[in-house]
Design a protein that fits this description.
Blueprint: E1 7-18, H1 21-28, H2 31-35, E2 41-43, E3 50-56, E4 59-69, E5 73-78, H3 80-83, E6 94-102, E7 107-118, H4 122-135, H5 138-148, E8 155-164, H6 167-178, E9 186-189, E10 192-199, E11 203-210, E12 214-224, E13 227-236, H7 241-257
Antiparallel strand pairs: 1-7, 2-3, 3-4, 4-5, 5-6, 6-7, 8-13, 9-10, 10-11, 11-12, 12-13
């Protein structure tokens, strides 16, 4: 018996970002661009091209480009069933569309729409309820990338650890331990200097200036069962970035694991 996937799901939001449509397109429709504000990505730049988002050491999402109209419109489909570990016909593809519209004053509005069809299962609703809060914060990274590092290739630093507690409390603990103050404040973070660009509910963004320029994302999210993950993700833009990551990443990992969390 085939599964009926006729329950619609949809997420739609818009973001305003600096740059020309061509600069925005480079950031949202190339592997190098997407990797500089989201997650390591491989993308064949054509309709029908293959797409792969890396989401962890042994996790990823595969898809293909279904709409390609530079620098205005990109559409791609991901294998939602495979991503969720379900049978191939259990879900429709997960479709995402990006539409870029130039504004006066050197900015663009990007309209993002994701949609799919499921069976109405409870876990599907939970997936869509968390998609927005999980995805939308990355578009703060996109704004910062386009404002300061447009067109540059990123080297990624990542570290994370699990602790008891809720995400907001953990994030507050990390912000205090790192001395992350109000937006606009100058900070020194484990030997790196920069400026706090954004304090949001689930993350703080720091624009790093030295020793390697880049974007530092300090974040936390719930795991369930009273635990949360707290982590850092830095997109670094320099010929020296790979050496810096080799030196700094183990220290970040140890620091996060040894973090003193209030009981």
């Amino acid at each position: 018996m085939s599964t009926t996937t006729n329950v619609p799901y949809r997420l739609e939001f818009t973001v305003e970002v600096p740059g020309t449509p061509e600069q925005v397109w480079q950031a949202i429709a190339t592997g190098q661009g997407i990797s500089a504000w989201f997650t390591p990505t491989e993308l064949e730049e054509r309709e029908g091209g293959a797409l792969h988002f890396q989401m962890g050491p042994d996790m990823g999402s595969d898809g293909r480009v279904t709409g390609w109209d530079p620098p205005r419109r990109l559409v791609f489909e991901e294998d939602w069933a495979a991503l969720m570990g379900k049978e191939p016909d259990a879900l429709s593809p997960l479709t995402s569309e990006f539409v870029v519209e130039a504004q006066s004053g050197g900015t663009c509005v990007v309209r993002v729409t994701s949609s799919g069809f499921g069976t109405g299962a409870e876990w599907e609703s939970e997936f869509w309820d968390t998609m927005g809060p999980n995805w939308i914060p990355f578009f703060d990274n996109l704004r910062l990338y386009l404002a300061h590092f447009t067109g540059q290739e990123a080297t990624l630093l990542e570290a994370a650890a699990s602790h008891p507690g809720d995400p907001q409390s953990l994030l507050s603990t990390v912000r205090a331990a790192l001395g992350l103050g109000e937006e606009g404040s100058e900070v020194e973070v484990r030997g790196a200097t920069g400026t706090v660009e954004r304090n949001a509910q689930s993350q703080t963004l720091v624009r790093l200036t030295a020793p390697v320029p880049g974007i530092l994302n300090v974040f936390a999210y719930a795991e369930g069962e009273g635990k949360s993950t707290v982590g850092v993700r830095a997109y670094l833009f320099s010929a020296d970035a790979a050496d810096y990551v080799r030196r700094a990443e183990p220290g970040w990992q140890a620091w996060l694991q040894e973090l003193s969390v209030p009981a």
